[in-house]
Specification:
By secondary structure, this protein is mostly beta strands. Helices cover 8% and strands 35% of the residues. A hairpin with a 3-residue loop joins β6 and β7. About 5% of the residues have low confidence.
Length: 130
Amino acid sequence: MKKSTSKKTVSPAPAKKPAPAPAPVVVKPAKPMLKKTSVKAVAASAVATTITAQIDIGFGNALYIRGQGPGLSWDRGALMNCVADDRWQITLPESARPVLFKFLVNDLSWSAGEDYTAAPGAKVTLTPTF
C-alpha cells in the first residue's frame, strides 16, 4: 500500500454568530396570606404613645423622660425633642400597656409630684413643675 504524498487542504469552518442569550426569567415572590382581622387586632392592641411637656426650662437646658414603658428606664433618661421654645415631645414605640413616667431637666432634676401615666396610643400634653 502506497502512501500518498499530496496534502489535502481543509478550509476553516465559517464563523457563526453566537446565539442570543435567553431572556432572564423573573420570579415574583408569593404574597403572604394574612387575615385582615389579625392585622387589625394587632394594630388595635399595640400603638405608639406621644408625650408632650409644655414648659420653658431655659436656654441651654434639655428635658428628659424616665419611666416604665417601651424605650424608657428609671435609671437613664430619654432625651425629648424640643419642638418649640416651651414645648418638648417624644413618641414612644408601640405598646399594649400604659406608660409610667416623670420628667427631668438635664436628666438630673426630677419634676415635682407623683408619676405620670399615659394610656397606650394616647397623645398627652402635660405641664410639669420643678
